UniProtKB/TrEMBL annotation:
The lineage of its organism: Bacteria, Pseudomonadati, Pseudomonadota, Gammaproteobacteria, Pseudomonadales. InterPro entries: 4NH2But_aminotransferase_bac (IPR004632), Aminotrans_3 (IPR005814), Aminotrans_3_PPA_site (IPR049704), Class-III_PLP-dep_AT (IPR050103), PyrdxlP-dep_Trfase (IPR015424), PyrdxlP-dep_Trfase_major (IPR015421), PyrdxlP-dep_Trfase_small (IPR015422). This is 4-aminobutyrate--2-oxoglutarate transaminase. The keyword Transmembrane helix does not apply. Its EC number is 2.6.1.19. It comes from Pseudomonas benzenivorans. Keywords: Aminotransferase, Pyridoxal phosphate, Transferase. The gene is gabT.
Length: 426
């Protein structure tokens, strides 16, 4: 009996807890670059990229070759037991790419949440403080500490009770929704007045471009004022670049475009081209604040994932993918703005590099987010062979995370499908 999406969905429902969501009722069978083929043989253009994991596309030949070569050597030792050179080389190469004119060290782990957890551990050890300030709309992971930092209850922490304390929430600046840079800075000062003294705050953690929150870009002046505030009070600035990293914004890390450097940078997702790898890179003196044994993990910095990450960075350099990321963004934004000109429900099209968002409102009223239409567009696009994602605090943002290696013809076809969806639904 041939497998179908419907039959596999039935097996999934019986075997997998309902808390593991699934946006599209599709089972992928194989993929190449920006094309995914399901178990029924249907092809889809992938504008989701595994949620920003496939900047170099599905199964890039150079990444596969590097992994295959590593598999002939060793797959696991646990770096804390027997070390291996690829781990060290990844740490060196990431440190060379993370912004900041200071000595850096790098920790490798397995997931983005784990990277953020360890960044907070490092900040606490380095400062002797416990508090953390995060931002409205922020997304930092699904583990207990990162759920405290994540600025969205449903669905991430709904029904789970209160998350660990010592986390305070400031406003993320967003001109579209009336939150100015001054407003955001004032919200931090309110925390200092009402909730916790600066000397009790170990770190301020921020996404340079919010991911799940809606792809809002932090204004450069805000990031510069945030850096000055941290310096004034001895607070560490953590840049969560899990989604923005590995070239998605047109620079390898988004902070390169912010005019300041963070003390600690988290990375994951596209750094290893689909293999699980994450980490924290930061000032050497802070990274060394924790004694031997306080950092690590059984699978942290897997040899296979490290081989993949080295290939990803090589591919970015050899194929000039940072410039390609910018070009992809320009092409898609131009096309999306043409669609916006015909449909007033599109209130905003925004991007940094190829991290692109389209925000929908009822009749263009910025006070009425249109989550219903957003969901309908995602479903209709799927029916037409395009995989899209939504995001945002109110679920009214379409986000595009297409591999930057996707050919122009495929980008244009995706744009045409999006245009058709709006013509039929909006």
């Amino acid at each position: 009996m041939s497998k179908t999406n419907e039959s596999l969905m039935q097996r999934r429902t019986a075997a997998v807890p309902r808390g593991v969501g699934q946006i599209h009722p599709i089972f992928a069978d194989r993929a190449e670059n920006a094309t995914v083929t399901d178990v029924e043989g249907r092809e889809f253009i992938d504008f989701a990229g595994g949620i920003a994991v496939l900047n170099t596309g599905h199964l890039h030949p150079k990444i596969i070759a590097a992994v295959q070569e590593q598999l002939t050597k060793l797959s696991h030792t646990c770096f804390q037991v027997l070390a291996y050179e690829p781990y060290v080389e990844v740490c060196e190469q990431v440190a060379a790419r993370v912004p900041g004119d200071f000595a850096k060290k790098t920790l490798l782990v397995t997931t983005g949440s784990e990277a953020v957890e360890n960044a907070v551990k490092i900040a606490r050890a380095a400062t002797g403080r416990a508090g953390v300030i995060a931002f409205t709309g922020g997304y930092h992971g699904r583990t207990m500490m990162t759920l405290s930092l994540t600025g969205k209850v449903a669905p991430y922490s709904a029904g789970m009770g209160l998350m660990p304390g010592g986390v305070y929430r400031a406003q993320y600046p967003c001109e579209l929704h009336g939150v100015s840079v001054d407003d955001a800075m004032a919200s931090i000062e309110r925390i200092f007045k009402n909730d916790a003294e600066p000397r009790d705050i170990a770190a301020i953690i921020i996404e340079p471009v919010q991911g799940e929150g809606g792809f809002y870009v932090a204004p450069k002046p805000f990031m510069q004022r945030l850096r000055a505030l941290c310096d004034q009070h001895g607070i560490l600035l953590i840049a969560d670049e899990v989604q923005t990293g590995a070239g998605r914004t047109g620079t390898f890390f988004a902070m390169e475009q912010m005019g300041v450097a963070a003390d600690l940078t988290t990375f994951a997702k596209s750094i290893a081209g689909g293999f699980p790898l994450a980490g924290v890179c930061g000032k050497a003196e802070y990274m060394d604040a924790i004694a031997p044994g306080g950092l690590g993990g059984t699978y942290a910095g897997s040899p296979i994932a490290c081989a993949a990450a080295l290939a990803v960075m090589q591919v970015f350099d050899e194929e000039n993918l940072l410039e390609r990321s910018k070009a992809v963004g320009e092409r898609l934004v131009s096309g999306l703005k043409e669609i916006q000109a015909k449909h007033k429900t599109i209130g905003d099209v925004r991007a940094l590099g190829s991290m692109i968002a389209v925000e929908l409102f009822e009749d263009g009223d910025l006070h009425k987010p249109n989550a219903a239409l957003t969901g309908q567009i995602v479903a209709k696009a799927r029916d037409k062979g395009l995989i899209l994602l939504s995001c945002g605090t109110y679920g009214n943002v379409l986000r595009v995370l297409v591999p930057v290696t996707a050919p122009d013809a495929q980008l244009d076809k995706g744009l045409a499908i999006i245009a058709e969806c709006f013509d039929e639904l909006a």
